[in-house]
Amino acid sequence: MRALMSESNKRKSALTSIARLAVMRYAVRVRYGALSIVLAVASLPAMVFAQSCPGIHVKVPNIKNSTGTIACALFESPEGFPTEFLQSATNITMMKIRDTQARCNFLDVPPGTYALAVIHDENMDGKLNTNFIGVPTEGYGFSSGAEAGMSAPSFEDASFSYDGENLDLTIRLKY
Fold first, then answer.
1. Could you name the domain of life of the organism this protein comes from (predicted)?
2. pTM: predicted TM-score of the whole model, two decimal places
3. Residue 113, φ and ψ in degrees, nearest 5
4. What are the boundaries of each domain within the chain?
5. I need a labelling partner for 170 at 20 to 30 A (CA). Which of 9, 62, 94, 129 fits?
6. Which residues pair with 174 in a beta bridge?
7. Which residues, 6 or more positions from 144, have their beta carbon under 8 angstroms from its beta carbon?
C-alpha cells in the first residue's frame, strides 16, 4: 500500500512540477510581451516628435566628397547675405558630412522671410574659399534656387516665406 501511495505522490508531484513550469513559461511570455508593448509605445512620441518638429529642415544631397563640414546659414535680412554669415546670419548650423550628404535643422524659428546660404567648408576654416579672381573653390548653394552669376545672389533672389510650421528644403551645391 505504501508503494502505491508513494507512486501516487510521485505522479502528483511530477504533474504539479509540469503545471508550475507551464505557468512560469506563460508568465515569462506575458512579461516579455508587455515589456515589448511598453517600449514600443514609449518610443512613439520621440519618433513622431523628430519627424514633425516645426522648423526649417535643409537637405544637402550629392556633396562632392565627405571631407570637411557643411555650414548652413539662415538670414532674416539682406544685411551680410551671403558672404558675412558669421557676423550677420540669424542662425548657423555646422554638420559633418555622411556619405556625401548632410542635413541642417533650424528649430524654433519664428514665421517670416528668410534666405539660406550653404557652403561645403572642405578645409573647415569657417569661410567659402575662392581663387585669386574671386571664384569659389568650395561648394556653395542658396535657397529658392538662387544662382550666383558674376556675384552672389541677392537676399531677395534667395528669400522664401516661412509660416512657422514644418518646411523641408533641398539645396544642391555648385562647385
1. Bacteria
2. 0.69
3. -105, 130
4. 1-52, 55-170
5. 129
6. 140
7. 115, 157, 158, 159, 160
Read off the amino acid at residue 127: K
CA torsion 32→37→40→45, rounded to 10°? Answer: -140
Q: Note whether 75 and 88 are within 8 A (CB).
A: yes
Give the number of other Cβ atoms within 10 Å of residue 89's Cβ: 22
Taken as a whole, the chain contains a residue count of 175
Coil, strand or helix at 107: strand
Task: Give the DSSP H/E element, type plus range, for residue 8.
Answer: helix 2-52
Cell, residue 64: 562632392
Query: In sequence order, what are the residues at sequence separation of 6 or more whose Cβ sits closer than 8 angstroms to the Cβ of residue 124?
Result: 68, 69
Picking from 151, 160, 153, 172, the residue whose alpha carbon sits closest to that of residue 115 is: 160
Joined together, the cell numbers standing for residue 18 give 509540469
Report the pLDDT value the prediction gives residue 23, as an integer from 0 to 100. Answer: 52
Residue for grid cell 520621440? 46
Of 112, 94, 98, nearest to 163 by C-alpha is: 112
